Amino acid sequence: MKKLLVIAHVWPEPRSSAAGSRIVHLLQLLRGEFDEVTLVSAAERGPFSHDFKDSGINSVQVGLNDPSFDVFLRALQPDVVLFDRFMVEEQFGWRVREQVPQAMTVLDTEDLHFLRQARGEAVKSGKEWNDAFFYSDVAKREIASILRCDLSLVISEVEMNMLIEKMQVPGSLLHYIPLLVDEIPGNMPGFGERKNFLFIGNGFHEPNTDAITRLKKEIWPLIRKQLPTAGLHIYGAYLPEKVRQMNKPAEGFWVQGRAEEVSEIMKEARVFLAPLRFGAGQKGKLLEAMLYGLPSVTTAVGAESMPGELSWPGAISDNKEDFARQAIGLYQDENKWQGSVKLIKPLLEERFRTSLFKESLLENIRQIYSRLEQHRQEHFIGQILRLNTLNSYKYLSRWIEEKNKKND
Which domains does the chain have, with CATH numbers? Predict the structure, then answer.
């Protein structure tokens, strides 16, 4: 295969979010399979956007609802097009299928947005969870996007099973590829060289701001009562003002903002806290904590699809009192802490090492690409959705184009 085109929702910021790290890692993994890799986005580049200048990857700013993208596609003639999240496939998929119909289409789901939304709504409503939360308009849009594409990358085994069993998506349209680790660092600081608790999470991500609020109001007071000299440091890009106002050094609760060097911060902390009540996918913050020898206390949602059959390096609890108790025990008991640290390496080796997943992904892409017409005939529902949505999204986009011309 010669050319890969990746259409990103925003310019990746690997130092700001797990989603940014994920797309950069995928690009690095796929780059060797193609003669030319091009990344485009209609978003504005920010000061923390990844610099692809020396990576062998072309990066191009494109217009949204702009016919110039049609010209771009015809000139590039990509063999494979990867959409970063279903919203991008909705915006650009019809143009890709109209201009380069022979191109294989791949969707990186990142995590299932409808699952994250459903869990968030259940938590905020205070209602007991039931499957009715699943069947939202977002779910219909996201499943339709998956069915339109030739292959979708799924980050979580839980989400793979959900798509196949609950949503009746054919397994042949899905490929499991978790967060990935190339190297496992060694010689991390020990128990006595570390102090304080830590949380890191992007402020744009609502599960993170909810977790910070829960720490401040419910969990940290319980920990602080038993460990009056310990501190909890909150880091994250784009933290909203309501979180920044929680900064209370006198209570040992420090809101620090963006972390310049995550590795150093994680090497200094003794226990990572992530009381996530909702969300989806795998949690990059927890994987990164493992990389730097940092045990964590999290929830069932936080650890979902990460340990498999292996033990968690720390503790998992959904009850605030037990969560605090587990955190205190891990912080005070060196033997317990060391035992958790020993669980990290086998977990990383068996569940996240890039070499376990790279070749199977590339081979799946090769196989589908080599028999693309037959693959599409075997998934006829996708052809129906492609035809119908091509027309609906096409005319909506054309209407926006004309509106923009009049505003100019």
Answer: 3-177+357-407 (3.40.50.2000), 191-351 (3.40.50.2000)
